[in-house]
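Revision sheet: structure tokens.
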Amino acid sequence: MLHLGRPWKDIWLTLGFCGLTWALSGFAVWAQPQVPPPLSPLPPLDQPKAEQVELGRFLFFDPRASGDGSLACASCHDPNKGWADGLPLSLGYPASLYFRNTPTVVNVAYQKRLYWDGRLADLPTLVRDSLTEAHFMNIDGRLLE
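Predicted:
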């Protein structure tokens, strides 16, 4: 058996400690939490006319837009609840549970696909369908023309 003297033992212990320190130093970098990059600003949209904005605001909060005049868009897209309703399943029309929850309308102008299943691609169609579908607003489609 090879017998190392005290100086060699100290050298091997020092080298072993340095190697272990070097090996573990990579874990310190690896264990750092990954911070996601900051969000980039949203691209500019065509600015609607002030009259259009005011009309949209009026119609959004007007319950006469529903089939029986009792339900406004804001009934489900509540500004106090993040422009949604905060429920796991939304209340359909008239007061029946719908199989999905109410999505927020925040930044809806930037969305490429609309509704949870992505079946629509533009806001005018979304508004028309939301107003005329029986489980949403249930208004007679002929009144929209």
